[in-house]
């Protein structure tokens, strides 16, 4: 079960929020605030209907799962490899992924106000924020919603916390603390930008290092990182060092591949390999593809939509073969919005050259 930044319930984070997998004939999507109990919903008729569909046919045959099907066919990791299996005998929720809010301290170029409330300040510059679900506001789960999540904690095997920025929301600390009181085995996966982890969180991780897997969104290093994400690279790097040297937890890199770092993969790989506080996976495109997350939207940040195939073929050190889906409109938007972000950041990015 996945709870989106806006509180909508889905099977996984890859399925778009506007696809109501639980009832295709019903336009209103299930929201945590409209459900009395997540456990009851998990064992209710809506989930039973989905279980029946997935028991009859695997995810490859369902249009909602087209992204994971594509990853599977390309031999890459995706959600299907680590989420809860469709087993009719399971009556307790074992895998829960949630986002307590879209509160974030970063304003990443490839992001949106759906995932970061920092974008609310500049949506108007990029013609974003028109999505009816986003509604141009900060989304925060209520205390009642949080209590519904806490109800699920005793039987979980994995708890995945996303954002926004998970460490920017103090309720995540309360949830994790409660988990340790009622569950002595569940693993906590946190997807973080790694730039903002308070002492309160550090102490909790330090006391339970074996229970945490920290996935760090590191797309670049140095000034390129600062242009893409809008916060200090030095501060992020120091935070990741503290996680390892003070808490004993290595961060697992989960970069987002975009037009803004596609030419700089070699530098990023070198940083991962040379930093003992980063969990590396050997030859990444054979053992673990940490570049499987790449930008498709907005199109003007997508390397596949902005670059022609001839341009892509000239890029050195690509993590895997990349197929262009060049779009002239996205290319023109890329030129326009890169200039706008240059002005907003206060310095320019040179996409094809090292920024240090």
Task: Describe this structure as you would to a colleague.
The protein is an alpha/beta fold and 356 residues long. It has 13 helices and seven strands. Strand 1 (2-3) and strand 2 (9-10) form a beta hairpin. Residues 282-288 have low confidence and may be disordered.
Question: What keyword list fits this structure?
Answer:
356 residues; alpha/beta; seven-stranded mixed β-sheet; 13 helices; 8% strand
- Number of DSSP strands? 7
For the termini, the CA-CA separation is 41 Å
Q: What is the H/E order?
A: EEHHHEHEHEHEHHEHHHHH
Structural class: alpha/beta
What would you call the shape?
globular
Q: What's the gyration radius in Å?
A: 20 Å
The number of helical segments is 13
Strand content: 5-15%
* Largest sheet: spatial strand order: 2-1-3-4-5-6-7
What are the low-pLDDT stretches, counting only 5+ consecutive residues below 50? 282-288
Could you report the average pLDDT, rounded to the nearest whole number? 85
Helix content: 25-40%
Topology:
Blueprint (H helix, E strand, L loop, with lengths): L1 E2 L5 E2 L27 H5 L2 H12 L9 H8 L21 E5 L43 H9 L6 E5 L7 H13 L4 E6 L6 H9 L4 E5 L5 H8 L3 H13 L5 E3 L11 H10 L9 H4 L15 H4 L2 H5 L14 H18 L11
Parallel strand pairs: 1-3, 3-4, 4-5, 5-6, 6-7
Antiparallel strand pairs: 1-2
């Amino acid at each position: 079960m996945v709870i989106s930044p806006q509180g909508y319930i889905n099977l996984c984070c890859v399925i778009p929020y506007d696809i109501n997998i639980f009832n295709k004939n019903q336009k209103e999507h299930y929201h945590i605030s409209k459900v009395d109990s997540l456990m009851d919903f998990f064992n209710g008729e809506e989930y039973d209907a989905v279980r029946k569909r997935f028991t009859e046919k695997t995810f490859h045959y369902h249009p909602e799962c087209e992204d994971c099907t594509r990853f599977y066919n390309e031999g890459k990791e995706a959600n299907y490899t680590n989420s809860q299996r469709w087993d009719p005998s399971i009556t307790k929720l074992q895998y829960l992924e949630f986002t307590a809010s879209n509160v974030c301290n970063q304003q990443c170029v490839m992001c949106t106000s759906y995932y970061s409330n920092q974008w609310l300040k500049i949506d108007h510059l990029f013609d974003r924020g028109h999505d009816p679900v986003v509604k141009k506001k900060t989304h925060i789960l209520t205390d009642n919603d949080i209590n519904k999540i806490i109800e699920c904690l005793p039987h979980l095997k994995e708890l995945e916390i996303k954002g926004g920025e998970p460490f920017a929301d103090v309720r995540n600390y309360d949830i994790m603390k409660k988990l340790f009181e009622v569950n002595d085995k569940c693993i906590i996966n946190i997807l973080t930008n790694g730039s903002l982890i308070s002492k309160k969180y550090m102490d909790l991780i330090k006391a339970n290092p074996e229970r945490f897997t920290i996935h760090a969104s590191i797309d670049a290093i140095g000034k390129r990182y600062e242009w893409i994400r809008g916060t200090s690279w030095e501060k992020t790097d120091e935070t990741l060092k503290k996680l390892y040297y003070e808490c004993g937890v290595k961060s697992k890199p989960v970069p987002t591949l975009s037009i803004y770092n596609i030419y700089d993969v070699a530098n990023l790989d070198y940083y991962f390999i040379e930093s003992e506080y980063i969990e590396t996976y050997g030859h990444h495109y054979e053992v673990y593809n940490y570049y499987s997350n790449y930008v498709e939207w907005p199109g003007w940040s997508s390397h596949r939509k902005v670059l022609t195939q001839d341009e892509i073929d000239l890029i050195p050190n690509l993590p895997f073969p990349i197929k262009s889906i060049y779009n002239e409109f996205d290319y023109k938007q890329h030129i326009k919005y890169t200039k706008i972000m240059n002005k907003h950041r206060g310095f320019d990015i040179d996409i094809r050259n090292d920024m240090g």
